[in-house]
Amino acid sequence: MGKWAASKIFKVNDTLLFKYDPQHHNVLQVSRSDFHSCNATAPIATYSTGNDSFFIRAPGHYFFFCGFLGHCQAGQKVDIRVPKITGPAGVPTGSPIQPPQASPDGSIEPSPSSSESILCCNKTWLLLVFLMSEYLL
Question: Can you tell me the distance from the alpha carbon of 64 to that of 128, in angstroms, rounded to the nearest whole number?
Fold first, then answer.
């Protein structure tokens, strides 16, 4: 997944969609050091529905991997880099939209305006992270 993500240009207000079988996988957002060591003990966020979204609110690095035993070590991880992009006179580009809201079960729902943002200038990236892995259970 590293080559795939490195070949994409992610922007603020984009949405990452994670699709996977929740019986065999999950998605953990982790720190840089936990990403490199595949340490799943202190995730920033945990996603486990099999149909999860992550709304990119700010430039930076975002690190995700599967928290199931051995999956990160087998390569089921992705590093998303969102560069800081500025327009004329250093003004940040992109129009603000409402971020996704957490549902009562803790999963993150896409923003109601996300389809409008996709048509305008933002993207939704579908990450079949764990289906694309060569790792076999």
Answer: 13
121 neighbors 107 (Cβ within 8 angstroms): no
pTM value is: 0.67
Q: 93 in a domain, yes or no? A: no
Number of residues that this document lists for the chain: 137
Q: What is the pLDDT of residues 46-84, one digit of tens each?
A: 999 999 999 999 999 999 999 999 999 999 999 999 999
Residue 71 within a domain: yes
| Structural domain count, the chain | 1
Structure tokens at 137: 């259970």
Domain assignment of residue 91, yes or no: no
* Rounded-to-integer distance, Cα 77 and Cα 29, Å: 10
CATH of the domain at 33: 2.60.40.420
**pLDDT of 85-109, one tens digit each?**
766 555 555 444 344 444 444 444 4
Return the structure tokens found at 34: 């936990």
Residues 55 and 25 sit within 8 Å (Cβ to Cβ): no
Residues 123 and 105: their CA atoms lie apart, in Å, by 26
